[in-house]
Amino acid sequence: MEANTHGTGRLPAAFLTPGSSSFIDFLGQHSPELLPGRRPAAGAAALEAPHGTTIVSASFRGGVVLAGDRRATMGNVIAQRDIEKVFPADEYSAVGIAGTAGLAVEMVRLFQLELEHYEKIEGAQLSLEGKANRLSTMIRGNLGMAMQGLAVVPIFAGYDLDEGRGRIFTYDVTGGRSEERGFAATGSGSVFARGSMKKLYRDDLTADQAATLAVQALYDAADDDSATGGPDLARRIFPIVALVTEDGFRRLSDDEVAEIARSVTAGRMEQPDGPQAPLL
After folding, report:
1. Tens digits of per-residue pLDDT, 114-156?
2. Which of 48, 143, 195, 238 is deepest in the core (most CB within 10 A)?
């Protein structure tokens, strides 16, 4: 898409003509080749691209926590030890990525732009439900790439201003959307992380407890899944943990997460399998 086709210094008419509030629709109409799902990927099934896992989320009183480990793998090799997998979508929502890392990050950036474009055109924010639906459409647009092995499977979480609570949405590679109750996990270590949260989750968690729960779940995932990275105390690489409340998105500082990670690691020295849920 050229910003100046005649050397006049003016934007093309397409930029100045009222249209859809969806930036993806605008891009699809004027420069569809820029959309991730429209790019050719011949032979992509034979490619080995970095993949990121694992993402967990849990709701608590007043909001929701979203967290991810820092490891990206390429086959049996650690491709990156400090990848970022949790991003703000806008002021009151966040998205965590699992799957093909490059495509996932690109999709997140496009999703951020989509929400910003809508707000500028309409003069209002999309509802949390509307944001979840927009992300579903974007994932469905990547189905061709997913069928060639380049899948993106995120978790979307945010604070619903209308309902006054945190909500969590998960997706499959076709864009199918499900709202989760209490907690969710995706990625290669999701089975182990979900099992951990299933035993420890409570409806009355505080924000601090929810953050600790997320780190405990990621620790358990790393304990059984080689593609998930646990807290790296030597390199000071810790999970990314973000909270979304009525005050908006807040990513915990490295020092805050380090304190949680060290506490969890110290506890594992006494109980290698982690805290136990009480028996009924």
Report:
1. 999 899 888 888 999 999 999 999 998 888 777 777 788 999 9
2. 238
pLDDT in tens, 111-123: 999 999 899 888 8
Q: How far is CA 112 from the centre of its chain?
A: 12
**CA–CA separation, 218 and 197 (whole Å):** 10
Beta bridge partners of 141: none
CA distance 224 to 216: 13
Q: What does the DSSP 8-state code read for residue 51? A: E
**Residue that is written with structure tokens 């409570």 in the block:** 202
Domain residue ranges of the chain, discontinuous segments joined by +:
48-270
Task: Let me know: does 55 contact 154? Beta carbons within 8 Å.
Answer: yes
> Are 187 and 140 a contacting pair, CB within 8 Å?
no
User: Which tokens sit at 237?
Assistant: 């690489």
Name the residue among 72, 38, 46 with its Cα closest to residue 143: 38
Indicate if 53 belongs to the active site.
Answer: yes
DSSP 232: B
- Residue entry with tokens 């709701």: 59
Q: What is the CATH number of domain 48-270?
A: 3.60.20.10
Instruction: From the candidates 8, 53, 137, 228, give the one annotated as an active-site residue.
Output: 53
Nearest to 117 by CA among 97, 90, 99: 90
Least Cα distance to 209 among 43, 25, 62 occurs for 62
- Take residue 57 and report the two structure tokens written for it: 């989320």
